[in-house]
Amino acid sequence: MLSHLEQLEAHARVLALEQKEKQAEQENLRKMRIKIQQLRARRDELKAKLNAYTLKPIEEIISIQGKDIQTGLQEEENNLSVLQVRVKNTEGILQAFHLTGICAKKIPRGVCISISTAFQGIYLEYYYLNVALRQPPVIMNHNIPVFIPLKELEKQHLASNLKQFLSILSQHLNAYACRRYQAEQLQSRFGARLFGPLEKNSLCNLLILNYNTKVEESHVQIKTQLIYSDITRWLPTDVKINVEDLSASVQEQIKIHQTMFLEKPAHKAFEALLIEEEESMIQHFRAAAE
């Protein structure tokens, strides 16, 4: 028992050193967070302006009227002042979209819109779609995953409300990218603590992980399902945990796990549970040694 306690205390010292390093990193992160908060405040200000602005169909967003770009330019060439005002408004709108992770540029037959995704300041990936300037507008090609309801969103919003179309599509894409990132982090960082690989579906709105946790003197195997019923969110809407042991102490621990997974990103929740278990074991052995 004493040998085991020494091992745990040695492990605790390693954790303490790591904690000091993390404190130095946290100071740098604190400064970065201040900058991020300033940028987010600016982004929110621009979002508010976007919400107050009634966006017109996509043709007018890029200052084009008519069936195609050439026709639009011909119709506007005798009204340069109106065109300049529209261009200025368009640039402001696209700049605001850019700060929210959405940007656009003109292409020969329409506009190319790109949507970037990120998780808590970590850039993940971007998606694009090329929209043809027809009546109504049509998506020509894209790299949006097939399980994102793009066709449905296109029919409902693209021609009538570009702002809403982009906002909802961005929510879907960012939530999916964040769920997938969490699953990847769980597998890469904590795969050794899992029984078998992490299970997930293509949309990553169902994650299943099997692992052990220690309750008092016993190891309990847990099967946890993280369910994301709202696919525009990256936190689960429900957490189901199955165990064979129905004792009161185990059920109490299960509630802790459920709360942790509901409130934190999956990989951070799992890490917090492991740290809590390590600390509990150290306290237990110290009490036993005394």
Could you please describe the fold and organization of this structure?
With 290 residues, the chain is an alpha+beta fold. It folds into two domains: 34-176, no CATH class; 179-289, Ubiquitin Conjugating Enzyme (Roll), CATH 3.10.110. Helix content is 56%, strand content 20%. The chain has eight helices and eight strands; from the N terminus they run ααααββββααββββαα. The strands form two sheets. Strands 1-2-3-4 form a four-stranded antiparallel β-sheet. A hairpin with a 5-residue loop joins strand 3 (122-132) and strand 4 (138-142). The longest helix has 51 residues, at 2-52. The radius of gyration is 26 Å and the shape is elongated. The N and C termini lie close together (11 Å). Mean pLDDT is 78; it is low at 53-59 and 61-73.
Question: Structural class, judged by helices and strands?
Answer: alpha+beta
What's the overall average pLDDT, rounded? 78
For the record, the count of structural domains works out to: 2
Total of helices = 8
Number of strands: 8
- Can you write the helix and strand succession as a string? HHHHEEEEHHEEEEHH
Rough shape? elongated
Low-confidence stretches: 53-59, 61-73
Q: For the CA atoms, what is the radius of gyration?
A: 26 Å
> What is the percent of helical residues?
55-70%
Q: Cα distance, first to last residue?
A: 11 Å
Largest sheet: 4 strands, antiparallel
Please indicate the percent range of residues in DSSP E strands (runs of 2 or more): 15-25%
